[in-house]
Amino acid sequence: MPSTSGLVGAAGEYYVAAELSRRDWLATVTIKNSPGTDVLAQRLDRRRIVAIQTKTASPGSHFRLNVKDEAPGERDNEGYVRVSLRGDDERSAFYVVPRHVMAAIVYLEHRDWLHHHDRLRAPMRTSQQRKANPMRTIRGTWIEGYRENCALLDGLAWEAPFLADPVFLELAAEVPLPDTFRSLNRTRAR
After folding, report:
1. Dihedral of the alpha carbons of 14, 15, 19, 25, in degrees to the nearest 10
2. Roughly what angle, to the nearest 10 degrees, separates helices 167-174 and 99-114?
3. Which of 37, 40, 72, 186 could form a disulfide with 100, with the two C-beta atoms 3.0–4.6 Å apart?
């Protein structure tokens, strides 16, 4: 199992490319520092091209993101694939999430933490004011509805149903998303 963050990230990128290839996509890992894109994939029939950013978590870890991941996508073909690595004899899990949805989840998670709403995790025993922090944490359980959901890549990202934990819709009502965000499709159908 990879032990450094660079190897963990590379493992996730190649895992995503391999899984998409198994599902009739021509997928390739991009060169490093490609803005917002780790894997480019095209359907064999050429009807769809998607730009995917991967984030990979080591076994037992949560997904670590940063403030850059709060930026919603500019196109309807952008998505994230979160890879949760498992042990050597276990199949890793992956979560296919439209970019604008992941940006909203990251934004709302941080506001929940920053303003002590504590809707997503147990309250901390501190009365100290929390300061802005560039790091963000996303748990796989919050995005379970997107697990193995490659079918979302075939449609327009902006029309994809919202399949994350419903608490994020509640948070969006309390802590409105900035105007630059698209609204979340509240349809929970799968």
Report:
1. -20
2. 70
3. 72
Give residues with Cβ within 8 angstroms of 58, minimum separation 6: 1, 2, 8, 85
Going by C-alpha positions, the residue among 85, 15, 25, 83 that lies closest to residue 51 is 25
Q: What pLDDT, in 10s, does the model give residues 30-82? A: 987 788 899 999 999 888 999 999 999 888 888 888 888 888 888 989 999 99
For the sheet with 49-57, list strands across it: 25-29, 39-43, 49-57, 78-84, 93-98
In the structure encoding, which two tokens stand for residue 40, read together? 């480019």
Q: How far apart are CA 32 and CA 169, in angstroms?
A: 34
Question: What is the three-class DSSP state of 63?
Answer: strand
Q: How far is CA 37 from the centre of its chain?
A: 13
Note the residue count of the chain: 190
CA distance 106 to 108: 6
Provide the residue ranges of all domains of the chain, joining segments of one domain with +.
5-174
Check: CB of residue 64 under 8 Å from CB of residue 137. yes
- The reported pLDDT for the residue numbered 127 is 57
Q: What is the CATH number of domain 5-174?
A: 3.40.1350.10
Tokens of 108: 């709302």
Reported pTM? 0.86
